[in-house]
Structures are given as structure tokens and as C-alpha cells.
Amino acid sequence: MATDSARNFATVALRQILGAVASQEATSRAEIARRTSLARSTVGQQVDDLLRRGIFEETEAGSSVRGRPPKVLAISPHAGTIAVADVDVNATKIALADLTRRIVARSVVPVPVEDGPAAVLGAVTSRIRELLGAHGRDGAPVRELVVGLPGPVDFQHGCAVRPPIMPGWDAYPVGAYLREQFDAPVVVDNDVNLMALGEAARDDVDAPLLALKIGAGIGAGIITADGSVHRGADGAAGDIGHLRASGDSEVLCRCGKTGCVEAIASHGAVLRDLGFTGEGGTARLTEAVAHGDPEALYRIRQAATEIGEVVATLVHMYNPRTLVLGGPMSEQRDELLSGVRAVVYQRALPLATRRLTITTTEPGSDPGLAGGVALAARDVFSPEGIARLLAE
């Protein structure tokens, strides 16, 4: 009985200490003792255990007022690996990160989503393994793999549900397939949720946050004031692309209905109407806008107006502090922002907009990958994740 009690106490102490260092609330043994109220001898024993396990590393600080420099504790970059796959229509972006959220490798798998889950996930699996080997991560086990899919996702079961732009993916067990490949927990989420998490992780962004991805379709990700993703009862929250557009349109959408905002205002719809289909369509649109092409400017402004109508409703419902517009359409930053802002400030009440920031994703950034890393790191250092980490 006494042995079991001592073992339980040691496990609880390990979790407290690991959580304090992972959250950066404490970076030394003395700070850990103050934060956790554990005896210094207990802290010393458990820290030494975590150092032996390779979960912690202890280094000397750069300077000291007198005597030896203090020692600083941190999560070891070799304690494990996070893998993220952000699946999009034409390709999948991949990133590897250590448990401190530092991205150590990036790559792109140029397999279109319409080739089906076996082709895409097979290529993703191979590339992740290549990256693990090339960057010396073979000895750092994959602690969690996060996948973003461009369609409705059943978060609990790890699969897409009747995704309009993903033939063959309906109910395919994405999570189960990758768990078997990497013997690690797998989280499957909507790609816009990951984008929203990535934007919310920026230092200059305030929550609650609403993120819109305007690409082949249109989706929204909602981050609450406490930094959590609002997925709804079944994971369908934010699937706004199939709301009815404000205009009297009978344009046929891929979902089989007519007049959906996605069919009228998505990046894909703009390219289609301008005849910029096929490879290089986005570059052609950017060039046309840069040269002041009246048809291109008119079509983007028309799309921005429709998107603004939807956003105005969402602003009333969720009252976000930040609205971020992303996806390939955000490359037309000036035209898109001016159009959306004009409608939102006209339609929404002053109380909902007086402190609202409307912006676009940073050029060249990958908020979907950053969001996947943030989600995985949070899971790894949750009570359940820490229990898994210490069970090895």
C-alpha cells in the first residue's frame, strides 16, 4: 500500500514538474519548487529522472552576477517530434517540429486531393519518413501527427464527411491509417481550424478570432477567448461556403445546390469566371489586378462584397476581436480587404465592430502548419499526453 502511494505521488510530481517547464512557468529547480510547492529534494529527484529520460535538458544561462551561472531547464528538442500535414486541393504541405514548437523541416507533396486518400496519404507517409531520416529525427519518436483536410471533418472519428472537393475521401479512416503507420496519436481536423489556430498563436493577434480561408471553397475557423477551437456538436461549425449568397443567383455549386456563396465568391469561382483556369491561374489573376484589368477588379470586388455579407452576420454572432482572411484570394489583399471592410462596417452594429481588426494572413506564412504544431503541442502536454509521455 505504501509503495503504491509513493509511486502515485512520484507520478503526480512528475506531471506537475513537466507541465511547469513545458508551459515555461518555471525554468529552474528553485522556480519549480516555488510554483508547485514540492520539496526541493523531490523536485531534484524528478528533474534528474526527466533528464535521464531525455525529456528535459539543462543548460547554463549566459551570465551571472556572481558565482556560477544558473542552470536553465527546458524541454529537450530530442524528446519527440510533431508532424503536421496540411492537405489542400493541389498539394499537401508538411512540417516537422520538436516539442518546443520549433519547426525543423518543411516539404510539399504535389499530389492533388482528387487522386484519392490512398495516393495522398501514401505520399505523405513516405515524405514524413524521409524528413525524419534526413533531419536526424529517427530517434525522436513521433508524439502526435495532425492532419488538416479541406472539407467537413468528423473530429471524433478522424475522417472527412461527404467533402464536395474530395472524391473518394468520404468516411475514409484517415486517422486510423496514419496511427497504424506511425504508432502515434493522430488528430484529423478541418484545414481552416488549423489556420485559425496558427493565426491565434501570433503575438500581435487577439482572440476571439475568426479566420476565413477563401480558396477552392470558403470555410471559417473560430477560436474562442480561451484559445480553443469552436467545432460545434459534430464538427460542422464554420462550414459557411454553402450558405445562400445575398444576390439572386442560380449558379450551381459542387454540393448540388444553387446560389451558394462558395460558387460565387470563392477564389476558384473568380478564376473560372475570368477564364483563368488551369495551372498558373492565380498568377494570371495577380498580374491582371496589378495592371488594373477592369474585369478582374470588378470580379474580385463582387466576391469581396458577397464575403462581406456573410462575415457581417458572423461578426454579430461571434463578436470576434480579430478577423483574418486567408487562402489564395488573400493575395489580392487591397481589393479583398477594402470590399469586406466596407460591407462589415456598413452592416454590423458599432458595438460589434468598434474594436474589430480585419486583416489578411502574412504573405509567405503557413498558418495551417503553425496551427497544427500548436494543437499537437497542446495535446502532448495535456494531462493525458503527459501520462502517455511518462508511461514510456
UniProtKB/TrEMBL annotation:
SUPFAM superfamilies documented for this protein: Actin-like ATPase domain, Winged helix' DNA-binding domain
Coiled-coil ranges from the UniProt annotation: none
InterPro entries, per database record: ATPase_NBD, ROK, WH-like_DNA-bd_sf, WH_DNA-bd_sf
Family listed: Belongs to the ROK (NagC/XylR) family.
Protein name, UniProt field: ROK family protein
